[in-house]
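FORM 12-B: Structure-to-Sequence Request
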């Protein structure tokens, strides 16, 4: 007869938590009760999904005293990796079945990533000069949603985030809230740092990162082993870990963000997804990153021809700066995105797999409308030359070096 082995399936009394989860529980027990209302900022990525499902489990099993209200804010950039977006949809169904309030937070139509680029003509972001995306598609919509929720509530809210820095960083006090560092989710650090200071909600929210100390292996264990078990909530989180590479996930410390993120050096997360036979049909998505790079090239953009006088009468610091996308470039970009989407969805239909939604009909119509209305970003009127036009060089002090000496 084999000796009886205690298992995780023997009732809530026997639930086991490792040290990392115990520390999370302690930090929630310490800070949670001071706030009547809680919110959870959830992006659908691995860290915030682990945070979300763990907090709900701790509430459901009575390890944490429930707040007066709990609101989940799902940050939907419309640029999520399809397997993560699909997993998030499954978890949202579970939330709704349990009567848990979940708000889908999106940027307004004109400010969404692709509408802003292809409709308004603002070039894709890059690391050096123009980094408008995280704030615009993640932080600002979250601030807005929180402000609206706070209007309905009396008192303050504790915003729980999935920021994770790993054990050693926590121990050494090296807490850098940079965006997307060390396999973290883009935007999470910003929530932690910027939300409490944002206009409209300043002074009314506190943030807490209860898995700050978790290592990535803690995240995978929770998503793949514990959370899917009935005793720990039966959450549909395994698909999230799978999206990061199934059995290989433990080794892969993937950064999560938008598909084709122009700021990431490599498309690690997308490549991992495509390496899974089930998701290989999404290979055309590889075309997005080069498209964003191409759209930043001078031939697709306008340029100020000389020193620029700003609205307040001062002179712009960077004469001859490159600016927005030409209409031809925007239409080219639109056709390419639609054809990438079309290819993926044709394969999806053939294989009986989920289709993707890079650009929906409303977004496409809005892009076409903005182009037809000849929309330019502030400070541009379309009369500027394209950036590949040969021209004299104008320096910041107004001196000019003619093109041909
Ligand atoms: S993942 Fe990349 S494109 Fe998306 S918001 Fe973050 S930095 Fe911008």
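FORM 12-B RESPONSE
SEQUENCE OUT:
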């Amino acid at each position: 007869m084999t000796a009886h082995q205690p298992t995780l399936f023997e009732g809530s009394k026997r639930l086991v938590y490792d040290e990392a989860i115990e520390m999370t529980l302690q930090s929630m027990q310490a800070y949670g009760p001071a706030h009547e209302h809680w919110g959870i900022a959830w992006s659908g990525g691995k860290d915030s999904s682990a945070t979300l499902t763990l907090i709900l489990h701790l509430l459901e099993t009575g390890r944490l005293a429930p707040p007066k209200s709990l609101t989940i804010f799902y940050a939907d950039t419309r640029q999520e990796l399809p397997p993560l977006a699909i997993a998030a949809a499954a978890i949202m169904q579970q939330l709704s079945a349990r009567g848990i309030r979940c708000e889908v937070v999106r940027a307004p139509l004109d400010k969404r990533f692709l509408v802003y680029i292809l409709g308004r003509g603002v070039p894709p972001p890059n690391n050096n000069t123009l980094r408008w995306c995280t704030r615009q598609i993640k932080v600002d919509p979250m601030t807005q949603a929180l402000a609206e929720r706070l209007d309905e509530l009396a008192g303050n809210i504790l915003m729980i985030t999935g920021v994770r820095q790993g054990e050693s960083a926590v121990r050494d006090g090296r807490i850098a809230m940079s965006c997307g560092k060390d396999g973290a989710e883009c935007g999470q650090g910003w929530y932690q740092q910027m939300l409490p200071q944002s206009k409209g909600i300043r002074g009314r929210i506190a943030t807490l990162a209860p898995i700050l100390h978790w290592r990535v292996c803690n995240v995978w264990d929770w998503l793949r082993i514990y959370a899917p078990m009935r005793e720990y909530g039966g959450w549909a989180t395994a698909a999230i870990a799978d999206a990061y590479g199934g059995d290989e996930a433990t080794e892969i410390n993937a950064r999560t963000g938008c598909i084709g993120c122009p700021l990431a050096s490599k498309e690690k997360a997308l490549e991992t997804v495509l390496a899974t036979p089930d998701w290989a049909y999404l290979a055309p998505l590889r075309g997005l990153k080069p498209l964003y790079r191409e759209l930043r090239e001078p031939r697709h953009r306008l340029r100020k021809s000389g020193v620029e006088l700003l609205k307040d009468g001062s002179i712009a610091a960077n004469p001859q700066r490159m600016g927005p996308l030409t209409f031809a470039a925007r239409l080219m970009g639109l056709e390419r995105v639609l054809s990438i989407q079309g290819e993926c969805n044709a394969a999806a239909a053939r294989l009986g797999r989920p289709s993707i939604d890079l650009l929906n009909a409303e977004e496409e119509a809005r892009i076409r409308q903005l182009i037809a209305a000849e929309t330019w970003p502030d400070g541009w009127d379309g009369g500027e030359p394209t950036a590949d036009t040969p021209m004299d060089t104008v320096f910041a002090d107004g001196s000019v070096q003619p093109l041909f000496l």
